[in-house]
Design goal:
Elements lengths: L3 E2 L9 H10 L4 E7 L23 H13 L4 E7 L8 H10 L3 E6 L6 H9 L2 E6 L5 H8 L4 H15 L8 E7 L7 H10 L3 E6 L16 H19 L1 E2 L19 E2 L5 E2 L16 H7 L1 H7 L1 H4 L3 H4 L10 H8 L31
Parallel strand pairs: 1-8, 2-3, 2-9, 3-4, 4-5, 5-6, 6-7
Antiparallel strand pairs: 9-10
Length: about 375
């Protein structure tokens, strides 16, 4: 069997691309929130989304920051919504703007508001779509997202995407799943279901922020997380020919976004990522280029392998992995601290690092 190295489309880049980005002090991707308004009330939501905030970005604001990101070399725009992006009135206009600039784009959505027409629009504009899917059990899915009947609506939205032509190389399809106590036993079957259909499984552990802080019943131990990640790796290698190393925070994926990306939240604040909710500037007050260049936080994260602290700094795989900076920040208050959710720093068997030059699945 020939082993392929997995890269999740839209969030990963080659080592050469990342090195070039660091040299020119630019970007490869931009994560973008529209509004905190949401039709769900997920118990694990990092943003505690629900109602819109005051002074949120306008459509011209959003297009302007996309233009600035493109000038900095960004190749992909990640549409997070902040709440639910399909509720944003300017969604089609923003998607068209990104498409016309020849940038790739991913959208993370719960899928409940998808129609045939909207699914076809996203497909025709080559938008990769990642849909929230936490459980194959309706009661568990509904409980995790805080709204009854969500399971059926999400399923219908997913079917519209399939009808539109997803997945293909220009528009990939994924499912976003948070690993928690309620769905832990389902994770392997959900992973296999996705792989068999050419769907990207985006399975991640919960960052202890937002509503997740109020729901200890979601908690899964590091030992259990390690076990499930190792099971998923074994499934991938033996059944699907994918080779990767098990480590937090997202199965089959090494996060290197702090070397080449940043987040613009719904009020225009620049953050290193969703987990490090520490504003370092605002696009209404300064240019994105100037914020990134002047921010000590951004600059330290761009040089994370030298600045990381604790056990992560002395780990034998520190040249490739820096753990989850969001976990570190939320659990210790220090975005440079070792990742408390990572088992690789503990005694016992250590996994090999993900290969540094992994090719993209679909170019």
């Amino acid at each position: 069997m020939t082993l392929n190295y997995e890269v999740i489309h839209g969030l990963d880049f080659t080592t050469e691309e990342i090195t070039g980005c660091l040299k020119r002090e630019g970007l490869l991707s931009l994560e973008l929130e529209f509004s905190k308004v949401c039709n769900l009330r997920c118990v694990y939501c990092y943003a505690s989304a629900g109602e819109a905030l005051s002074n949120e970005l306008t459509i011209p604001d959003i297009k302007n920051v996309i233009d600035q990101a493109a000038e900095l070399g960004a190749k992909k725009i990640i549409l997070l919504g902040g709440g639910e992006p399909l509720m944003y009135e300017g969604l089609r206009s923003v998607v068209e703007h990104i498409y016309n600039k020849r940038l790739k784009q991913n959208i993370f959505t719960n899928g409940m508001l998808l129609t045939r027409g909207l699914a076809e629009f996203l497909f025709n504009h080559e938008v990769s779509v990642i849909v929230k899917h936490n459980s194959n059990t309706p009661e568990i899915q509904d409980k995790l997202v805080g709204v009854k009947g969500s399971y059926d609506k999400i399923k219908q939205g997913f079917e519209y995407l399939i009808e539109a032509g997803y997945p293909n190389c220009k528009g990939q399809l994924g499912i976003q799943t948070v690993i928690c106590r309620q769905n832990l036993k389902e994770i392997p079957d959900m992973w296999i279901w996705a792989r068999e259909r050419g769907i990207i499984p985006y399975f991640e552990i919960i960052t202890n922020q937002g509503r997740a802080k109020e729901h200890n019943e979601l908690h899964v131990s590091n030992k259990e997380i390690r076990k499930i990640f190792e099971e998923l790796e074994s499934i991938d290698e033996t059944r699907f020919g994918h080779k990767w190393s098990p480590h937090p925070t997202i199965a089959s994926f090494t996060c290197k976004r702090h070397l080449y990306s940043c987040l613009v939240n719904s009020q225009g604040n620049i953050q290193p990522c969703t987990g490090i909710d520490m504003p370092v500037g605002n696009i209404r007050q300064e240019k994105l280029k100037d914020i990134l260049k002047k921010s000590p936080v951004i600059q330290k994260l761009r040089n994370i392998y030298n600045n990381i602290q604790g056990e992560c700094k002395t780990c034998e795989f520190a040249f490739d992995c820096y753990g989850c900076r969001g976990n570190a920040y939320q659990m210790t208050g220090n975005y440079l601290a070792s990742d408390p959710a990572c088992w690789l720093n503990k005694k016992g068997k250590k996994a090999s690092p993900i290969h540094a030059n992994t090719p993209h699945i679909c170019q």
